[in-house]
């Protein structure tokens, strides 16, 4: 029978809900959300899967918990900050967070039991808009459109056939090799004169689109922006 000396280093550290959630995030980061199971989570912590149930009720509670941890990584606007600067920083922080945890993109909006970090996040974002002069209705619109932009762009990036600017250029070159330019002149022009130019990076489209949204919100907010 194995004695205490045979315990793994992980199992010597007292198990807690925080450790379980941190291990779940690490497992999802490494192998994707589909790899997350109670058995694999227990293995990563050096304990039997049944031990996890002393800290979390089930896998759904783990999913709720890791979403709350991830939301807690997003920078929220401090009270009294300029609404536009706060919104911009918050959106960029959310994008950076989703880039670290790409599996979270499809999970975050699917949960129905928001935790304390998520509630704090919602309240702070809405508060920033309200303090910035937005009506309740406009604050809701602003929150919705910016979140849709964050998650929509993140999902699009996950589906693209390239990850870097160099790979994007390779895809563009391959397209041009087979594209009948006379049939698709505007597409060819965009690819050659824009997408294939030095320094082009599709990721930069995110901030351009963000500024368009913020300009629109400022115009609808009123003459003071």
Report on this model:
With 225 residues, the chain is mostly helical. The chain has 2 domains: 4-56, Orthogonal Bundle (Arc Repressor Mutant, subunit A); 76-221, Tetracycline Repressor, domain 2 (Orthogonal Bundle). The protein is built from 11 helices and no strands. Helix 2 packs across helix 3 (38-45), helix 5 (59-72) packs parallel to helix 7 and helix 8 packs antiparallel against helix 11. The longest helix is centred in the middle third of the chain and has 24 residues, at 136-159.
Q: Which helices and strands occur, and which strands form pairs?
A:
Blueprint: H1 9-12, H2 17-31, H3 38-45, H4 49-52, H5 59-72, H6 83-100, H7 116-131, H8 136-159, H9 165-178, H10 185-195, H11 205-221
Helix pairs in contact: 2-3, 2-5, 5-7, 6-7, 6-8, 6-11, 7-8, 8-11, 9-10
């Amino acid at each position: 029978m194995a004695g205490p000396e045979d315990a793994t280093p992980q199992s010597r550290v007292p198990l807690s809900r925080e450790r379980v959630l941190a291990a779940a995030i690490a497992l999802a980061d490494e192998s994707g959300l589909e790899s997350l199971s109670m058995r694999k989570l227990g293995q990563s912590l050096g304990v039997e899967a049944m031990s996890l149930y002393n800290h979390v009720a089930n896998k759904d509670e783990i999913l709720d918990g890791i979403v709350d941890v991830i939301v807690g990584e997003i920078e929220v606007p401090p009270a009294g900050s300029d609404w536009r600067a706060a919104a911009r920083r918050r959106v960029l922080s959310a994008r950076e967070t989703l880039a670290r945890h790409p599996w979270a993109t499809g999970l975050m909006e699917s949960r129905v039991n928001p935790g304390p970090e998520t509630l704090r996040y919602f309240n702070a974002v809405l508060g920033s808009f309200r303090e910035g002069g937005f009506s309740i209705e406009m604050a809701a619109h602003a929150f919705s459109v910016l979140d849709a932009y964050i998650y929509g762009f993140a999902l699009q990036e996950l589906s693209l056939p390239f990850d870097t600017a160099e790979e994007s250029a390779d895809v563009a070159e391959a397209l041009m090799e087979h594209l009948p330019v006379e049939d698709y002149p505007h597409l060819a022009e965009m690819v050659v004169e824009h997408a294939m130019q030095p320094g082009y990076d599709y990721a930069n489209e995110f901030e351009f689109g963000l500024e368009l949204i913020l300009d629109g919100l400022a115009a609808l907010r009123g003459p003071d922006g």
